[in-house]
Specification:
elongated, 5-stranded parallel β-sheet, alpha/beta, Rossmann fold, 29% helix, 9 helices, binds flavin-adenine dinucleotide
Length: 329
């Protein structure tokens, strides 16, 4: 029987949310064709992750066990382990989460097997004349593409945040099977050496208010007033790629296709034109306020509210008004 083998990642004791979404995506493919659903993860699963795997209807859980495989494992080493497991299980479908780590692992799998990898899929089905019919998220989420994958074995990543994680109608056995791959020491080179925990303050990804600045802010010092407003509103500061390229802000603050996707209650875009690559990072915000000198800027025309003017005059006035209303000195 064909098996849909799904690579999953843990988040503490449980499965990471994108991995649960990926399992739901993989299960819909398996169920539509009467195929099996297996999962593979690095190391022995915790009780919490086993419970998640059962809930997702997984039949067999393959624990990839080797000295080189732990939470800090090199993506190349994880990929080689998956290739060896996949070869042993026989041809089928291999799916991974479309996270940074998942995409890197799956890209290594593609390179090692010389198979094409289709990234960010939302649907997949075997095509009538062979190969696979797919729908993929493209351009940072602004369009969906119908694609055909010319390959016997489908290597796929599931697009993050596109399939809601849902439990299977009947739980799976999640029977544990240990797989011990043979891994060369050379695969152990690019691995996580250190993890830095975020300092105090609200995280950009979860902040209810994001005050974001772009080229119009003009300098690193110019962000001081954005910081002040963000603090008053209990929010975080974001920025465009121009701000990070100019060294005004760290890449951690960048919103967009190659930065963080945010979905706050309020996104305030100060001196940001609203290029597609930025827009895809903030378009899920409940309300967007643009502050810009250009009435034709895409951010202004797409925003819920816009104030036309110089941010260097408007933001200090806004800060003073918020302080006055709150009775802050
Ligand atoms: C592959 C790729 C990935 C990318 N990923 C990202 C990404 O993740 N995030 C991202 O942001 N960009 C990304 N970009 C870059 C993106 O295309 C734009 O170049 C960038 O977003 C523009 O930044 P900006 O809006 O700050 O600057 P600009 O486009 O130069 O816009 C500046 C805006 O400020 C306004 N302005 C100027 N002065 C003032 C003032 N005093 N008061 C008020 N308004 C003022 C102007 O009217 C203008 O609208 C990416 C590009 C590529 C090719």
């Amino acid at each position: 029987m064909t098996t849909v083998l799904t690579y999953v990642e843990r988040d503490g004791d449980t499965l990471a949310k994108p991995s649960r979404e990926t399992l739901t995506f993989a299960r819909s493919l398996a169920e539509a064709h009467g195929w099996g659903l297996d999962a593979a993860l690095v190391g022995d699963p915790t009780e919490g992750s086993l419970a998640d795997l059962r809930a997702q209807g997984v039949a067999t859980v393959h624990a990839l066990v080797h000295d080189h495989l732990d939470d800090d494992a090199a993506p190349a080493a994880v990929a080689e382990a998956l290739v060896q497991l996949h070869t042993q299980l026989g041809p089928g479908v291999l799916v991974g989460p479309g996270t940074d780590h998942g995409a890197e692992v799956m890209a290594h799998v593609g390179a090692r097997t010389d198979l094409p990898l289709a990234a960010n899929c939302t649907t997949a089905a075997p095509a009538d004349g062979g190969g696979w019919d797919l729908t993929r998220v493209r351009w940072g989420g602004v369009l969906l593409e119908d694609a055909h994958l010319e390959a016997d074995v489908a290597l796929l990543t599931a697009a993050p945040h596109q399939t809601a994680a849902q439990s299977a109608g009947a739980p799976g056995a999640a029977e544990l099977s240990t797989f011990k791959p043979e891994l060369d020491d050379a695969l152990h080179v690019t691995r996580v050496k250190e993890r830095a925990t975020r300092g105090g303050g609200i995280s950009l990804a979860t902040a209810p208010v994001v005050i974001s600045g772009g080229r119009g802010v003009g300098s690193a010092e110019g962000f001081g007033i954005l910081e002040e407003l963000a603090e008053l509103l209990g929010g975080a500061v974001g920025c465009s790629r121009v701000a990070t390229n100019n060294g005004w802000r760290s890449h951690n603050d960048q919103v967009g296709q190659t930065g963080t996707r945010v979905a706050p209650d309020l996104y305030v875009a100060c001196g940001i034109s609203g290029a597609t690559q930025h827009w895809v990072g903030c378009m899920s915000s409940k309300k967007i306020l643009a502050i810009n000198t250009d009435a034709e800027a895409p951010m202004v025309t797409r925003a819920d509210y816009a104030v036309l003017g110089d941010l260097h005059e408007l933001l200090p006035a806004l800060v003073e008004e918020v302080k006055a209303r709150r009775g802050v000195g």
